[in-house]
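Q: I have 395 residues here and want to know how they pack in 3D. Can you give me a structure?
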Amino acid sequence: MQKVLLIGSSYSTVPILSCLKKKGLHVTVCGSIESDPAHYYADKSLHIDYGEYELLKSRVTQESFNYIIPSCNDISYLACSKLAAEFGYSGFDSPDTVKVIHDKAAYRNFTRQHDLPAPKAIVIRPQSHLKNIDLSFPVLVKPSDAFSGRGMKLVDEKGNLAAALEHAFRESKSKVVLIEEFKAGTLHSHSAFIKRQSILSDFFVDEYCSVYPFQVDCSNHPSRLSDSIKNIVRKSINKIAKILAIQDGLLHTQFLADGDSVWLIESMRRCPGDLYHKLVEISTGFPYIESYVDHFIGKSELPTRDFCTQKPVARHTISQPSDVSFLSLSETIPATKVHIVPLATSGQNVRSAPFGKIAILFAEFKDDNSMWTVTQNMAKFIQLETLEQQCNSHV
């Protein structure tokens, strides 16, 4: 039996693990938190921190895996890509390409060099001088190597820049920060499965940040974007794929749109988190997870039939702006079907967004307009019961 190392152990890893098990593979799950759900279903577990690369490398050397697969976070993907460069595992780009796509500063330099639509930005390091910043305010300050909006701040004027930079540097292991012109527009994502450096299948999703300003917690498929905007994005992604000569597989991108303008924000080759795949799969029937997995286990074929939208579906990651002791939840979403994936147990303390999540909810609607109206207001239809509420009601 062929052996696979799946790097990651959280709830987002479970669908990938399930897919691998169905293919008859022996799966070892790597993750330091022994209570994570993927450990319960794996054939074997490595309870180590995969951010400690030398430790991870030594275990890979001992085990002799046939394949390695990243889960749904950047640390996992970068660890896998380093292993692939050393051991020759399939499905990964060259180290230079990995850096361009997964490092925000390198990605922004790449978009500028190749005339791709993206916000104007400059790279800042601790020793950099702030006198010659040729950017229009407001600006976004973001760590080059952080995710889920951590360390990001919107700055309206230059006088507030130093404090935002200090905050961003604290969240950056590489101590590299991006200052980027803020663009007003609607937020979207584009999941493209690439074959021979060209898009074979793709999906556009509308996204919203309703609790934490820089973390998506509401989304829907199909998107309300125009065909002209979609084609601008497709042209850009095909250009990226060809210039970088990327390997077959998933290329996932977040972007902003306003009128006829598009700005690419970031791309990634890992699977997006918070069960993003399930939104696409429920809506279209496309085997998202299987298509993601196959290119890491030496299978190059993607589904060839056309996957037309079948259902209007919204996704909501339930979180809170402050720490809470979660007890229960209910919903009154005007949908034809609602499915809830709980992440917290009753009585559990859940950290504030972007660090803590209570549940992920999927809602199916009778038509696109109903879905588009409700998606960005999903939090209004969720009723949470917390210990803090109970205590305050008796004061």
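Q: Anything worth noting?
A: The chain has three domains: 3-89, 120-181, 186-388. The chain is about 30% helix and 30% strand.
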